[in-house]
Amino acid sequence: MSDSERVQGLHDLIDLFETNIRQYKGRAYDEAKARSDFIDKFFRLLGWDVYNEKGYSEMYRDVVREDRIEIKGKVKAPDYCFRIGGARKFFVEAKKPAVDIKHDIEPAFQLRRYAFTARLPLSILTDFEEFAVYDTRIKPDKKDSAATARIFYCTYREYEREFAFIRDTFSREAILKGSFDRYIEETKRKKGTTEVDREFLKLIEQWREELAKNLALRNPSLTIHELNYAVQKVIDRIIFLRIAEDRHIEPYGRLQRLIEQKTHLYAELVKLFLQADVKYNSGLFDFKADRLTADLTIDDRVLKEIIRSVYYPDSPYEFSVFDVEILGNIYEQFLGKTIRLTAGHRAKVEEKPEVKKAGGVYYTPKYIVDYIVKHTVGETVAHKTPEQFAKIKICDPACGSGSFLIGAYQYLMDQHLGFYTEEKNLKKALKDQRIYPLRENEYRLTIDEKHRILLNNIHGVDIDPQAVEVTKLSLLLKLLEGESQESTGMLFKYTDIKLLPDLSGNIKCGNSLIGSDFYDTGQMSLFEDEDTARRINVFDWDKEFPGIFAEGGFDVIIGNPPYVRQEMLKESKAYFSTHFAVYHGVADLYAYFIEKGIKLLKPSGYFAFIVSNKWMRAGYGDPLRRFLKRKQILEIIDFGDLPVFQTATTYPCILRVRNRDLDLSLAEGKNDIQEFKAIRLESLKFSDLAAHVQDNAFNIRVAHLHDSGWSLTHPRAQALLNKLRGMIDSGEAVTLKDYVQGKIFYGIKTGLNKAFVLDEETRNRLITDDPKSEEIIKPFLLGRDIKRYYARPSKHLILIPKGWTNSNISKGKNPWDFFRGTYPAIANHLAPFAAEAEKRYDKGDYWWELRACDYYKEFEKPKIIVPDISLRGNFTIDRDGKIFSVNTTYIIGSSDKFLLGILNSKLITFFYKHLSSSYRGNYLRFIFQYLSLIPVCKYEDSTKGNQQKRDLMISLITTIMDLKEETQKQKVDTERVAMEKKIQAIDSKIDTMVYELYDLNEQDIHIIEKSDK
Fold first, then answer.
1. What is the CA radius of gyration of the chain?
2. DSSP reduced 3-state for 992
3. Which site in 159, 499, 718, 1011 is 20 to 30 Å from 548, CA atoms measured?
């Protein structure tokens, strides 16, 4: 439809409404007529296929038009859901023109509850006469006026004037081009905006705390494990039944009516649970397996508050549109905490130690789950029939709340439905009761078929029993999506099957990495410790899934394994060292999950994890890199330091592998399996990850992966990196480590700062008391004080006890004796800190100075200093050798200005970007592991021309250093700007000289300059 046709169509609609407005606002004109006469046509003008005239399958149709269902006068489901590629974008709630959209509270609250619960940022309320847009990230409240959270309003008379905004925000084309998302981003920080997952998380965390405290108080015999189990079960059961009500599977208000019960509310709740067990036959309500929770005592007050909080009008949630994926996100955060009991049997909720160490919970965004599922499960089921689908076994070995398994389950259901509704298969599928008709040309899988898919294909393991229960709950809720009292009633009428399957054989609790052979070699004492045995929770895959491993293993392994630092793995290290090829003493837990995941596959099976990207460059990733080079890597998508995880600061990559062993001797050949697709993303502003990867990825040959670390670099840039490394191999350059004869040192590690970092007043007092003290009081710099060619004057002072070395420590000498015997005034200053220091010493901490150091003398020489975290090379020279620097810096044992110019060049920053791990905000880590590998070009001074070039470069660097110092002193802005321009010009000249020094061509220089921008 052309723009002129849209304008004319809009004009015609407005004229029609204006001509007959009295009729349309009359009682006889209902909402259904308003939808068909005006609202449908209005959104067709915006490019939406309202009637699915293109014949898209149910999962991909643009507009889902919901049935209007009333339960006790409460209207269920929004009128329209507008989607792109099956993903919800916004709701539209329609009313008849007699409704006062501008002032009536109820319609606005109703729409906002739908959209807030569905986690949609914007939605529309309209009767065509009026058109209102709401920011549905703002939590709705029953006391809100109709204007609350409304960000746009107009009447039909203003449509022509406002149509540009409406079209540019809500048209199908606008959403595809990203303007809808940009508008959302612009209003993101508006006061009051929030998201349903955070709000519902607060709610169920409140439930957990109240239940835990009450259960601990009223049931004093409960152990800590029983308490956690009981609280989780009660919450899961209430959430399941409440969602089932809003999805019309349970009678609405059944839980709510319990509030009328004056006493013994929990006993009545247990009766509902028992009835649910008969109906659903799920482990969720199985009181034969659960012999604990039926006999608990819970105060009525606690349960009434919980139940009241999930019903209108107190609840802002509409559970009929509550996505299981959103619930999974909430539960993932919820599982990051646990309940513990104090000495007085009081309950306290706190963050799990492993979560605290890992820096948060890493819930995977849906677009990444969908991408991984499509490129693993999708590859596996391609060109297969449902009979062949049934043999495919999918597993997440660290399933958490089940997000990847839900994604895989949904994908398989979509594939089944797509196959059955093909014209050639439709008649048989209906006869075999694989599908049933919803309305004309729309079909759904029968619940029996969804059962079969779930039990046949979906498997998972997690070490946390609570996570296992949440995964089961999430999968059961996914199975019930789209069901109603009518459809579930048909199941009971025609089959003996119960509504829900028992998932205990599919989703299991255990340690995916450690088998029962853990206890074979000197670990039997741990087996006797109940807490340790429960924490280790050994798991034998071949015994737990015998049928699958009789067939060779799983077809697909997917997931987001836990990121647990090595200090949390002390009990397991000995086992890992003998059972894993990727073992490294400081490896993160995810490294072992990668190896285990691939080994659980059949030959040629598909593997994909989203994991931290540190393994590609970190030292502990070396064994993992060697392991992966022998497998068929399909793809690596590196997200760099982009904020993929909302609640954590780990930066991930997607790793896809096929379980095929490679012959590395063929790596230089032309076999396609010796190369893989790669991309390093610079932004998350893409509408579709798959399309973005398809358009921007490039191939990397396995043979070109460097042992010191993998860099996902475009082939042209990789050729330049290889050229630079080749200069070292050919002898044209040496590593920085060799150039400075190994003199690269870590800054002094800080310890008990309040004792050893001094202010000027304390320094003067100590020197007055004992002039000898001045020998060991030194200025020092932090990493942020170091700039390119310049260091800010030191404002810090530190005690440097020269003579106190690591050898003193190994001999068990007491540092206090060292001070008392040599520097009495300083010993007196430190005395008040002695008690704390001794405690740290007993724990093995280096509390005394800022750790003993054997190379203090290197700080008293002229040297090059660099901050350990920086956006680019920020090297400077301490010309006088008077500066000490702490552990946010490194020092290089050289005062060579020629070397300084090379290190600060764009060339070396380019090399470094592709060598080291990125840090937060695109920062680089300048640490020994990578600094030592910088190629320093040899420069012979034997000819007069070379000597002149070297002298010129040193002269330019001296000028820059002098100008940098002068710039800091300037008080007149114009003078400072003029100096900075001169510095930039000289800097550019030095870069050009470095390019010549390394014999770079125009293409090489273009690559570096582009990278610098």
1. 34
2. helix
3. 499
